[in-house]
Amino acid sequence: MHTLKRNSLITGALGGALLLLSPLSQASWVSGACPSGLSVPCVEQDYNGTVYHFNGGHEDDWHPDANGDDFSFSGSGTIQCPSQTLDCSVNLDAQVKKFQDDQDVWRIGFKVTDASVSGGLLCSLADLSGMPWYLADSSTHDNFGNDDGVVWPGPIQGNIGTLEVLLAGSSVASNIHAHGVSYDNVDTFSLTGDLYNNGTDTAQGCSLSGDLTLDSPVNYLTVF
C-alpha cells in the first residue's frame, strides 16, 4: 500500500508538472472570453473553436498562440523597387503583447519573428530579413525595439521596422522601415506603404504592399 501511495503521488506530481509545461500554460492564455467592463486592454483569440484571453498579470509578456506557436499570417504581397517588381506569396510569424509605456499609457505591441516569400523563381530568390520587426506608432522612424507599440485604445496602425530585402542573397534595401501598416483587430494585417530609410521619413524607393490573413487554427485575434 505504501508503494501504491508513493506511485500515486509521483504520478500526480508528474501530471501537475506536465500541466505547468503545457503549451497553453506556457503561452499564458486563460480559457474563456475577455471579461466586460475592463479598464485595461484584454487580448482574445479563437483557437480552433475555443476562445482564450489574457489581461491582468501578463503585462509586457510576448504571447504566441494558445498552442505556443507564433501567430501565422499569409497572403499575396508585392515588393516593388526601381529595378524589380515581385508579386509573391508572403508569410509572417508574429507574437503580441500589451504593456504600459513610461507615461503609463497602455500600448499594444506586435513582433514579427519570421518572414518569407514564395511563388516563382524571382520570389524564391527574394528574402525578407532583419527580424525581429516591431510595430510602432507612426512617429517612429528609427530604433525599433521591444518597447515599441501603438497606443490603446485606438487603431492598430503605424510603422514597422527594421527591415531588409534581399534578392539572390544581395541586399536591395537595408536598414529600412515601412509606413502604412495596420491590423484590422480581427484577422488581417495590411501593408500599404513605401519603405523608408531608418532615421528619416524620406522614401527609400521601394514599397511593400499586401493583405495577410491569420492562418488556421487561429480564427481571430482581437484586443478589447
Automatic annotation (TrEMBL):
Q: Which residues form the signal peptide?
A: 1-27
Entry keyword set? Signal
User: Could you name the domain of life of the organism this protein comes from?
Assistant: Bacteria
What name has this protein been given in UniProt?
Answer: Secreted protein
